[in-house]
Amino acid sequence: MLNEKLPGTPMSSEEFEKAITIEDHPALEYAWDDGVAIGRYLKELKNGRIVARTCSGCDRIMIPPRMFCELCWRPTDEWHFVKDTGVVNTFAVTRVNWDASRRGPNEPPLMPAVIEIDGASKGMGILHLLGDVDPKKVKIGMKVKAVWKPEKERTGAITDIKYFKPY
Amino acid sequence: MAFTERLTRNVDMTAWHGKIPVHYRYTLGLAGEKFFTALKKDGKFLATRCDRCGITYAPPSVYCERCFDALDTWIELPPTGTLMSFTVVTEDSSGHALKEPQIIGAVQLDGADTVLIHRICPHCVDCLCPGARVKAVLLEKKKRAGGINDIVHFEILE
Fold first, then answer.
1. Which of A105, A118, A130, B148 could serve as a FRET partner for A81 with CA atoms 20 to 30 Å apart?
2. CB contact under 8 A, B4 and A19
3. Strands A21-24 and B24-27, how do they pair?
4. Strand partners, B73
């Protein structure tokens, strides 16, 4: 409903197409300094390993690794390899893509999930995708294992793991 | 307490590179639509006027920036004006060197109280001075698409 004091100008799709518009595709490139911890984490993914960081103050094994413990307020201590298996902590079944576009009728739904990684402290995990599983059968607590890309295709990215599947 | 592990060689530094896809289309608004339609079709410069404040807006606005009153008094301005300020640009928006320097100027059309920003003819580089008289050079009518680039640039009148 139009506010008389602050009138807007509603437009239909047709009116929008008839109006003069400015169109642009700005090149938004960025380089994010991944630092010591995430830098090594990504390099180890290329090697097919998941690396965590330990803190002797709170006795946690933290994944993703970080150089500073946010609980103890001190530097973390050691690198520690963890397994590429884990359990589903939480998940969603979604039929929209990251940019809110709808997935096609023949595209399976995406299943983003937080996976608690085996070998890390309870509750510590990473956000990834589930695959090779019927969306109706996904359960919290389900045991899953990483499905890696072939070594030659890995680039040192979180997508070097294609998804996690039940095992 | 010092950090126990740190990078000591710059070749060890890594970064995550990415691109954010952005695509937009936006409308020019009521005033912009009317301004650029008149420019495209008739080669005319339209402006709005606030009689209460005595301000003429070019490019036009549908409201007065001073008293917030709605403006519906439209007038036509000549394609001539005064160069109020300028700068010579040697890099593009990504920081890459331009082949030719570009002059960007703030032009107050005759009868207007506001300025519009546009290119100044590169051949006029030696005549640049605040207060210089300028005239708009438009694209020929069939090439005009409705947009700020329907004005090629402003040239300085000797």
1. A130
2. no
3. antiparallel
4. B49
The pLDDT tens digits for B95-134 are 899 999 999 999 999 999 999 999 999 998 888 999 999 9
Chain A residues near residue B46 by CB distance under 8 angstroms: none
Instruction: Examine residue B109 and state whether it is found in any structural domain, yes or no.
Output: yes
Candidates B48, B34, B41, B117; CA nearest to B77 is: B48
Using a CB-CB cut-off of 8 Å, the residues of chain B touching A11 are 27
pTM of the entire predicted model: 0.67
DSSP B87-134: EEEEE-TTSPEEEEEEEEEEEEETT-SS-EEEEE-GGGGGG--TT-EE
Q: Is residue A92 within 8 Å of residue B18, measured between CB atoms? A: no
Are A48 and A154 spatial neighbours (Cβ–Cβ below 8 Å)?
yes
| Number of domains composing chain B | 1
State both tokens at A63.
């994944």
* Residue B5 falls inside a structural domain: no
Q: Phi and psi dihedrals of B111, rounded to 5?
A: 100, -10
DSSP H/E element including B35: helix B29-42
Could you give the ipTM of this predicted complex? 0.74
Residue B32 · residue B40 · CB < 8 Å: no
Cβ contacts of residue A167 below 8 Å, gap of 6+? A85, A143, A144, A145
Pick the residue of A13, A20, A46 with the most B CBs within 10 A to test the interface with B by mutation. Answer: A20
